[in-house]
Known about the structure:
The chain is α/β, with parallel strands linked by helices.
Amino acid sequence: MAGPRHNRMLPPQxxxxxxxxxxxxxxxxxRRAGLLIPVALFxxxxxxxxxxxxxxxxxxxxxxxxxxxxxxxxxxxRGFAKALAAMMSLYLAxxxxxxxxxxxxxxxxxxxxxxxxxxxFDHMEGLSIRFFDKHTHGxxxxxxxxxxxxxxxxxxxxxPNFISSMVTVISVFxxxxxxxxxxxxxxxxxxxxxxxxxTAIGSRSGPCFAQQQQSLGKLNGxxxxxxxxxxxxxxxxxxxxxxxxxxxxxxxxxxxxxxxxVLANILMPIMGNLSHVLYAIVAIAGGVLAVGGSLSLxxxxxxxxxxxxxxxxxxxxxxxxxxxxxxxxxxxxxFKLMDEPLEEDEGYVTLAKDEAGRLxxxxxxxxxxxxxxAPVQGNVVFxxxxxxxxxxxxxxDGISLYARPGQKIAFVGSTGAGKTTITNLIxxxxxxxxxxxRYDGIDINKICKADLRRSMAMVLQDTHLxxxxxxxxxxxxxLEATDEEVEEAARLSGAHGFIQRLPQGYDTVLCxxxxxxxxxxxxxxxxxxxxxxxxxxLILDEATSSIDTRTEALVERGMDQLMEGRTVFVxxxxxxxxxxxxxxxxxxxxxxxxxxxHDDLIAQKGKYYQLYTGAFELS
Length: 619
Ligand SMILES: Nc1ncnc2c1ncn2[C@@H]1O[C@H](COP(=O)(O)OP(=O)(O)OP(=O)(O)O)[C@@H](O)[C@H]1O
Ligand SMILES: [Mg+2]
């Protein structure tokens, strides 16, 4: 568990196909992609205004300030004021343009992220259980948090800033060339030095940063695991050991962070100082040229200003580019999730209802072009089913069994024998490669998955409750159930009593996965949820295993009522639940080794007899 979790903390990787990913991402702008034109325009205008505004300095100094220094002159002064006003309006217009393109990009990116999130989530809902087996929740979560956030950053800041930096650098460079090639030469030479320093430090701090991220990943993974396992830590008094392990990781982190940041922290001041040096050199050289008469004072001042606005974006361009690339890597990971093949379903038999509300199988026959209807009865047959989660590792081996409508089939056997796996196949969480499972005579692969699952209710081995009221959690079994139906189902499953004792009864809000309930209470709710669905087939996976004996008696009564008239598959570790089953299957390593009624099996004196006489608990 800890391994994959660390991955999301590792340094963001570069995208493999940045251009392709970028294009696909742009597809999410849809019809609004046209808005990119005004964005480009405003970026150009804002950079243009910035540069032109600076260019005004020359006019101000050479045409107005220098003559004014010679003596007061009304006309010159008026011109000076006008030029000042024009310069100010230019800067204002520039700011307006900057605001505008950021604003448009913000809208664009919000819309894009909305679409991206919706599509990712919808797609994820259609993925098979097999997919979720292979990906931890932390890994999937980071698609919605880290990766989406990186795309947001890129869209609302990264790209506009990168483009505007590029535009500024290029046009400032052109302006510099126009003003004075000699000074530009000095700037270019100095710039080369600065870039060399930056890459030298960058190449050394890069690996240190990767190491820092790795240490951070380890540290966070450890903290996460310990928070989750806090009870186990306390039970085994492992606080001291955990602290020691934590200290070790923390120290590793401190060292890595120091190494990485010492270098990185030097970079900025060095670059800052170098740009001051550049400024000074240009000022001296410019001064010399001005005194020599080959440049005007205004040109030198303006040039100096350009030097300022040049070195700032150039030190940021590579950083912005990295940001964009790692956001594209995030987008690529999101797209990878979206490209996961959906859970296949070639089923065409669907559920229908007759006038009396009874369930029917609607079976279209393509060749004859006709449709037949057959009542849903709950007749399940396994015919030599062999299955494994991973190829080459057989979990179920040649399972054959049948359940007539209304029968109760119990599975017993040691842990890992394959009991839960059998139920996973009935509702097609996994498809069966070999052998057949028939439901009312229909191969279940022909039944549409959603309808198949609708026709049966399952109480899973690990119950899951949602952050909502008790009532809504039960209603999850059948969304259109009325409040009365919900309460009726709760009564049937024996949950009504404890629900009434909750502070707000049925309106009590359960917190994360029902942490404010006991294990048994959670299971009672899960049973009530199945009861409200009122299906012809019921699958109970160890539903009573954590209910105390007194409650068990209560639940048993309810369960008997619940099971009445339905086909039931029940996996129980307690013999009391198994004893009155119509048939008991004893499973061992994926094979049914004994089958029969309780009395038959006891008379056989085999594994079941051993289990029954050896221990009350079957596992
Ligand atoms: N999602 C999965 N991926 C791969 N292997 C799995 C998966 N689920 C279960 N297995 C393996 O299949 C075998 C049968 O597991 P299953 O959950 O059916 O056992 P079980 O009889 O329900 O046990 P228990 O009584 O403990 O619930 C085990 O060896 C288990 O390791
Ligand atoms: Mg199980």
